[in-house]
């Protein structure tokens, strides 16, 4: 894998079998003498949706920025698509990020650009033609059920609509890895559920690998217990109380991994701290 060009499309398909999409090994990072992540190790397999849970300030956003190569660890190694980020040049990191879609906290749209130009931002960077770009923007906006807002500006949109635009912008390049940093943060419970429905849709339609930070346990369990129904064009509970096998959890508290595993293990854990956190 080390010799494969990162500019090829379909990073996951070109990885050697058994290679995780994301792999942290003994990663630590601190700021101003304060350790934010301590000896963090975990793997995210192809097609997996990994939910990051834990109290505020525990280091979840830092972990996500490390995954995207926006920060480098003080020690340990981070491999994405089988390549060690610390061994990459700036150019290689830039190429790697072309395969990663990011939904930032608070949407992070450009206020001076309309929805079309916000969603097309990365296509413009890649010098995709106007015609192709428009067709792909329409497709991405249709996915998030927001075609009608194509000419609007962010200030004209509700918080939930802005989050949808942000998801359309992240998926427009058909990324192999999606990073959602608190996609429901600041939204009311009903709007949050519509955003989680989109995440479920994206998971079950594209099978892209994803990392998702959430502060809402309800979002996490909705992801684990629901699937996208193409016939109903809606999210539905997995029958017989089934669980999505590709949805897993990483719980971080004060910089350390306190849980790494599937839904049943999490809900069945007897660890006192986890039990009180999940209540
Ligand atoms: N660039 C930075 N410089 C200095 N300190 C930082 C930096 N980035 C993050 N931190 C600190 O790292 C700690 C963890 O922050 P982080 O945002 O990752 O937590 P979080 O678990 O995502 O929290 P929240 O759930 O509130 O989003 C915080 O104390 C934060 O102030």
Automatic annotation (TrEMBL):
InterPro entries tied to this protein: AAA+_ATPase, ABC_transporter-like_ATP-bd, ABC_transporter-like_CS, P-loop_NTPase
The ABC transporter domain, residue ranges: 22-279
Domain of life: Bacteria
Native organism: Bryocella elongata
Pfam family name, one: ABC_tran
UniProt-listed Gene3D superfamilies: P-loop containing nucleotide triphosphate hydrolases
GO terms of molecular function: ATP binding; ATP hydrolysis activity
Designated name of the protein: Phospholipid/cholesterol/gamma-HCH transport system ATP-binding protein
Keyword Nucleotide-binding: yes
Record's keyword terms, sorted: ATP-binding, Nucleotide-binding, Transport
Organism lineage string: Bacteria, Pseudomonadati, Acidobacteriota, Terriglobia, Terriglobales
